[in-house]
Amino acid sequence: MRIFLDSANIDQIRQAAKLGVISGVTTNPSLVSKEGKVDYQTVIKEICSIVDGSVSAEVVVTEAKAIIEQARELASWAPNVTIKIPVTTDGLQAISVLAKDGISVNMTLCFSLNQAILGALAGASYVSVFVGRLDDVGHDGMAVVKDTVDVFKGYGLKTQIIAASIRHPLHCVAAAKAGAHIATVPYAVLMQMLQHPLTDVGITRFLADWKKVSS
Ligand code: E4P
To answer: For the chain, which has fewer Cβ within 10 Å, the N-terminal or C-terminal residue?
Structure first.
């Protein structure tokens, strides 16, 4: 499983990139707005210069024609921009046009296997299943990821499955076990994945023992 960082915060992206474990970034309008009044193009271009892999930038229009126009504009900002498009009738129309032009699309706000199948058939490179938001309303978000993995495998569909809306480290474990191609994780969760109290205890003990040898 690969890891994307789910953030529009430049400092977080720089820090995470230094670890050498992230191969992409996902943003959405809410994440960008958390950074205050920023210029969208500047932010996306800067993220693309930090990270080699796919950087998802979301469209903020709803009609097919407008989505296609905006997607082409976003795609011109950097070669590694992936266009994030919500799964709607207009969204699917736009995805199928853009995919034929070779533009990478991440179909977002996906909450069901049916939506994921439609995204794959329309030609999306990625579908983002929102695990946390499904869990929030009493559904099993990871079951949708698992079903999507099984069905895509069974039919040889090439679209990659992103476990999105990740809220805690156990979501990452479950996404990996479910066979998600990618988990897109907030910075805080990335740090939680790294930490283990026994690692800290172990380092303290090793260093203390080493002092006895060297003093
Ligand atoms: C990423 O692609 C999604 O936009 C993001 O994971 C949504 O997360 P949230 O449900 O915590 O807002």
So the answer is: C
- The rounded distance, in Å, linking the Cα atoms of 79 and 159 is 19
Task: Report whether residue 7 contacts ligand 1, using a CB cutoff of 6 Å.
Answer: no
Could you tell me which residues come within 8 angstroms of residue 84 by beta carbon, excluding any fewer than 6 positions away?
26, 27, 28, 56, 57, 58, 59, 105, 106, 107, 108, 128
Q: How confident is the model at residue 215 (pLDDT cuts 50, 70, 90)?
A: confident
Pocket test residue of 5, 134, 165, 187 for ligand 1, highest count of atoms within 8 A of CB: 165
> Which atom from ligand 1 is nearest to the alpha carbon of 30?
12
- For ligand 1, the distance from its centroid to the CA atom of residue 27, given in whole angstroms, is 8
Burial 141-173 (b: 16+ CB within 10 A, else e): bbebbbbbbeebeeeebebbbbbbbbbebebbe
Angle between helix axes 40-50 and 10-18 (nearest 10 degrees) is: 10
Closest CA to 142 of 125, 118, 161: 161
Active site residue 212: no
Exactly one of 45, 84, 158, 212 is catalytic; name it. 84
Which tens digit of pLDDT belongs to each residue from 43-72? Answer: 999 999 999 999 999 999 999 999 999 999
